[in-house]
Design a protein that fits this description.
The complex is a heterodimer of chains A (about 450) and B (about 200). Chain A is about 5% helix and about 40% strand. Chain A has about 450 residues and is mainly β. Chain B has a three-stranded mixed β-sheet. The chains are: A mainly beta (about 450), B alpha+beta (about 200). At the A-B interface, helix 1 of A face helix 4 of B. Chain A: Keywords: Repeat, WD repeat.
Amino acid sequence: MASPPSTDDASTPRHASAPSHTIRALATLTPPSNSRTWQTAPHPSSPIVATACSDRTVRVYSLTSFTLLHSITGGHKRSVRSVSWKPHVRGQDVLATGSFDASAGIWRRQQNRLETEITGEGGDDEEEEDEYQFACILDGHESEIKSLNWSPSGQYLATCSRDKSVWLWEELEEDNFETVAVLQEHDGDVKCVAWHPEEDLLVSASYDDTVRLYREDADDWVQVSCITGHKKTVWWAEFEGSALSKKDFRAQRDKLAEEQTRHMEELEKSGPRLATCSDDCTVRIWRRKARERGHGTNDGIPSIIRSSAIDEDWYEEAVLPQRHERAVYSVSWSQRTGMIVSAGSDGKIIVYKEKWKTPSPGKLDATKVNGDGNTTVPDVDAPLTEWVVVAELFSAHDVFEVNHVVWADRADKGKREGEEVILSTGDDGEVRVWVLDEQQEVAP
Amino acid sequence: MDDKQNANPTILSLSDLPSRRRESNVKRRDDGATGLFDDLIPQYSYLNDPFEQPLSSSDSDDGSVEDIDEQEVYDLISSISDPEHPLSLGSLAVVNLPDIHIQPPSSPHSSISTVLVEITPTITHCSLATVIGLGVRVRLEQALPPRFRVDVRIKKGTHSTDEAVNKQLGDKERVAAALENGTLMGVLRKMLSTCE
């Protein structure tokens, strides 16, 4: 929520660095819903997306033709708040849906039109196709499900709810789900759950302003870290993709200073970072403190209580330049470029990029720009990188709030090699598709 | 009806409520002053007479960028009924004109305006404060053009759990879920039935 805007005003008209990119409208998925849409999930391999709608349905659209392929109806009794595609499934599409009716649904559809969807050609002649079939229902939460997410391997499904709990489900055999864990660490609604891309490490973000991480320890899922720093509800959490060091600012390896090389090695040890966004109008980056090997396990103290060796230390690495004036509902980390996009109640879409700090990080640039005193950065050095805003779009959904934003691979005929689009989902019931254009340098 | 949270609320008389016609005559309730016997004064039901309602702007939700001022916002919410008394939020001084603040767009690129309403619950531990706040938020979201963001808060220091209530009222997802709750919607519908 916005603090009294008078105090914010001074910081808004900041044009220190002109944006280097523009966000251009490519399409609106049609037909739109006529009531609020909450979230859009791109399919892990096919050029389709699923959109969670407040009219109790899920809409599946094509990213090649930008048209509606399927409406999944008749399942939930209240708003569908969240959707997630199960990864690594062969021959069928499996979708999990989480609803305000406190239940999660599993839906299946045979992929009989593989060729049209993979090639992206002939997307216009989608006729009567097999519909999504209701497979099973996951009951257990006491109140609204706010978010759900499959683990990268597809082994686990995590769900979270206003009942303050996170549930972990494992599919033992088709449509037979077992509750693996019920995690009740939060003191308030759990708004979002997400998975680390390489490890079975789960993160949850909450109304209690904290972010918590969990992993399995001797057959038991336990909290391994609690991140504090946001001052209000944390709406979304998402991990950085895998192996981004070959794609983002680190890809260019020539002429690096010694500290820069060291920074990259350290970052590699930390692994993918975590981005979170909040009602406090900020987007923050968290990083795992790399573990020192062989320490803490052989100190001779028999462990009756669980070993603390599993605990992780996550610290705040950066606060992104603050451009949002109201709650930031969603943040997404590009798997291809490492860029971050955020959106929220103020209707803006902001794209950020990380880069080496200039002038070169040689001698003590002692000004510590990240953080606001809450978290101590263990390394005394000033940060070597900085996040800059590369594009800023006002009124992405006219006057309406933007509930969700996510990167997806571009799939229409105009796509360039390896290009991505940004999908935004709004209170106006629309899912809009945007491309990020690099601005041509205009001579004065 | 003995279990009302506040059986003896202070009530303002209609002539004391701010309106466009008598702006110079706006009188604020002096908190802590008399009012002890005010509730003995009978027959407030006329407040709910539809013909007595100030003409509000339910006809102005065509989205056109016409100016909406604090008085107009006040008119939209002062006629909401209290959930436990047959009285309006205006006459109970739960909503007050000086506690309504409109912020214009913060940048020429933006068309988003903000309405902040601070409500004053009749007693400091009134658990209905959340419902009242929700009623105000819902009323304004339905009646104002969508370019307005509506923030409803408990006026600082007037309620024992104001931070917790504010957090709930500011949470879009919770508000959306509440509006899908049939029982709660029934209460809200009744509160809002005296509007328009």
